[in-house]
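chain below, 471 aa
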Amino acid sequence: MLSALRVQELAAAMGFNVYLTGGTVRDLITGATLRDLDFTIEGNPTKMARELEKGGAKILSEDEKLRTVEVLFSGDFEGSLSAARDDHYVRPGTRPEVRWSTIMEDLRRRDFSLNAIAISLNPASRGLLLDPTNGLSDVEHGEIRALTIHSFTNQPVRLLRALRYSARMGFKIESRTQEWFNLAIERELHLTISPEDAGDELRALGREERPQLILKEWEDHDLLERVSPILAKKHPGYDAINRVIKVRDELFMAGFRPRLYAPMMLAILGRLKDREFSSALSKLGFRVAEIDALENFPEKAAEVQKELNGKKAKTPIDAYHLIEKLPMEYVAYLLAESNNSAALSKIKAFLHKWRPIRMALPTVSNELETLGMPRGPKFDQIVNDVFAAQLKGRGKTPEERDKMLRKLSGIKETPKKKEKEKKPPSKTTDKQAAIEAAQARQSATAAKTRMGDKLKASKGTPAPKKKPKKK
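prediction:
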């Protein structure tokens, strides 16, 4: 993947060791769809993030204290750059002291063994798997195992996280970890989950593929109230969540891998009123810009829908170019929530009819090149004109495209050479042929007679004497 290669290049140039870690490695091992790219660096990743930004990446957030940068890589792939660190607790349950460390120390201080696996991306050890806590075995056995008895005491939010991983991956919680989990609940450690930590879990939930499974686990363990009391009271919008999931699957089948964080968050919190919505997110430590982006999202989606019904999308080719430039989050939201048939029909056509035609355009280019048209601006314009015609249902067969391409390019079909007409045989020719055939038969008979005479002579049989001619 290009993003990973670029991070490797920058790390080598800056003299840092870099590793793939956490969920990225876990997904690679289990064969799951890669959700994001998590890099851990033995050094400060801030400068590296700035260089990535110059190459088209977008910095989503930055925690200077923990030296962690959330990044949207080019190609709309999320990830993070984090400095390797060790969390030192003076006593269980206190705020840790952060110390910068090696990758092995970083892996050992993590929450669960399945998150404590790394793959080296360094030239001298590229591809080396680092697994100091035997997390690979837990992944193979489908278990969530905490790394220390103080895991939930040190960070009670791990109660939510353990259930999230279990529901997402279909893993069971390892027996000893389950005992620690139950003990933490008995001691009411879940009541000490900080709003900011709960907010981070809600953000992570918005990026999950099947958040309804996690929400039900939280509800079953009476932990949803620790995320949001009003959400626990009114319940998540499960119907809306299922609609977004259905749309995401449809987009995936059409070749898209969209970030549907905003539509999913709106679905999860869909039963809350406007004031309750903003208040709940504010209490969870969401920034004002985050809240505004979510609150304004439906209005911006409505503007997109208006454009799809307007002059800018009057023809199929215009609608295609408009939808092509739209963020897929808006397209997904409209597919999930809109009842506007005109806008939805154009989106459906874009996904299932127009894009396949667009992907087949190299065939049109090859056909035009075969006709003798040199590549250039006019060449590209002709291909685009054919594409526009195809969106209207024309030019489906090679024969139709050939006529269309010749007409647009001005290349005429090469005229075929006429074959010379054969004259019918005359009567004279027929007579001559009959004479020649008779002569050939006479020649053959004479030859047979001579051959017979020779054979008789060779056997001693005298040839018949010729009668003397009378004088």
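The mean pLDDT is 88. The CA atoms of residues 322 and 328 lie 12 Å apart.
thats it, cya
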